[in-house]
């Protein structure tokens, strides 16, 4: 699968929450897009497919 434009491998059955944990990201501070569709937080238990394109967007404060 691709995560933020890079080819990565995860074991079969990996959920979006697993991916966020592997990158040490807080689910409350990111937006996840799967195949160009925004995934609602209640669906982060979605099991990612090897063909999926995953984009993880983090919120950054500043001014």
TrEMBL record:
CDD domains: Ubl_ThiS. Residues 1-58 form the TGS domain. This is Sulfur carrier protein. It comes from Metaclostridioides mangenotii.
